[in-house]
Design a protein that fits this description.
Chain A: This is Methytransferase partner Trm112. The complex is a heterodimer of chains A (59) and B (214). Chain A is 0% helix and 44% strand. Chain A is mainly β. The chains are: A mainly beta (59), B alpha/beta (214).
Chain lengths: 59, 214
C-alpha cells in the first residue's frame, strides 16, 4: 500500500485515526506492517501490501 | 438456520470461506464491468471513489479512469488479492474509511450477501457516512424477478427472502447465502437507512442511486 492511503483509512470500529508502522517497504510502498488504533488498543495487519481492517469480531 | 437466527456471524464466516475458495474461478468469468455501473460512472469525475464489496476488482479500472483515487474493499482475502491496489480487506457494516471522504461509492451485487437486515442496514448507513455532501452511491441487489429464481420464488418468499445458491465448478460444489429482495423490501431497507433516492430494476437486479439524507 502507498502511505497516502492513510488519508482515507480509519479504525473500522471507532473511526479514529490509525497509526502506521511499516516493517517492510519496497519502492516506497508498505508491504508488511501494522495499523494501530490507540483508542481501541487494537492492531491490524498490513499483509502483502493489503491492510486487513476486518473488525476483530469478524475475523 | 437463517442468517437472522444466528445473528449472521456463522453465515458470514461460511460465505467468506466460500468466496476465498472460489476466487480464482470467479475471476475467470467475472472480469467485465456491468453496463448499469458504466452508465452510472459515465461523465462523473472527482477525487475519491470507493468500491464497497469490490470482489476481484472488476469495476476499479472504470473508476480509476475518472477519479484520482479509487479504493476497493472486500471481506474475502483471496478476492482482494486478485484486484489491482489500492485495496483493503474489511467489512461493509464497519467500513474503515473516514467520514465524508468519498465523491462516489459503488455497492454492486453485494448487499444481498449480508445475512441479517440489521447488517444490510448498517452497511447502507456506512455508505451514507463515508459519502461527502455532494457524493452519491449506486447500490444493487438481485431481484426476486430474476429468471434464475423461476420455480423457487415461492420457496424464497416462504423463507422470508433467505436463499442459498449453489456454485458448481467441476467436482466442487459450494453454496452462497443470498437475501433475495422484492421491490418493496429493498425500498423499505433504503427508507430505513440514512440514504435517500430512487429505485429501479434492470436485468434482474434492483438498483438505487442514493445520497445521504438531510
Amino acid at each position: 500500500m502507498k502511505k497516502d492511503l492513510m488519508e482515507l483509512l480509519c479504525c473500522p470500529v471507532c473511526k479514529g485515526e490509525l497509526e502506521l508502522d511499516a516493517t517492510r517497504e519496497e519502492d516506497g510502498e508498505v508491504v508488511e506492517g501494522t495499523l494501530y488504533c490507540e483508542d481501541c488498543d487494537e492492531t491490524y495487519a498490513v499483509d502483502d501490501g493489503i491492510p486487513d481492517l476486518l473488525p476483530p469480531e469478524a475475523r | 438456520m437463517t442468517g437472522d437466527e444466528d445473528g449472521g456471524s456463522d453465515e458470514k464466516a461460511r460465505l467468506r470461506e466460500t468466496f476465498d475458495a472460489i476466487a480464482s474461478s470467479f475471476d475467470e468469468t467475472r472480469n467485465q464491468p456491468w453496463d448499469d455501473v458504466a452508465e452510472f460512472v459515465d461523465g462523473r469525475e472527482g477525487g475519491v471513489a470507493l468500491d464497497l464489496g469490490c470482489g476481484n476488482g472488476r469495476h476499479l479500472p472504470l473508476l480509476r479512469e475518472r477519479f484520482d483515487t479509487a479504493v476497493g474493499i472486500d471481506f474475502s482475502r483471496s478476492m482482494v488479492a486478485l484486484a489491482e491496489p489500492p485495496v483493503v480487506r474489511g467489512d461493509l457494516s464497519a467500513l474503515p474509511f473516514r467520514s465524508s471522504c468519498a465523491d462516489l461509492a459503488l455497492c454492486v451485487a453485494v448487499l444481498h450477501h449480508l445475512p441479517t437486515r440489521a447488517g444490510r442496514l448498517s452497511a447502507l448507513d456506512e455508505v451514507a457516512r463515508v459519502l461527502g455532501d455532494d457524493g452519491d452511491a449506486l447500490v444493487s441487489v438481485w431481484a426476486i424477478e430474476h429468471p434464475k429464481f423461476d420455480g423457487v420464488r415461492d420457496e424464497i418468499r416462504a423463507a422470508g427472502g433467505d436463499h442459498h445458491v449453489p456454485w458448481k465448478r467441476g467436482e466442487e460444489e459450494r453454496d452462497r447465502y443470498y437475501h433475495i429482495h422484492d421491490r418493496a423490501s429493498f425500498e423499505a431497507l433504503v427508507d430505513d437507512s440514512s440514504l435517500d433516492g430512487t429505485v429501479w430494476d434492470s436485468d434482474g437486479n434492483y438498483y438505487a442511486r442514493l445520497r445521504p439524507t438531510g
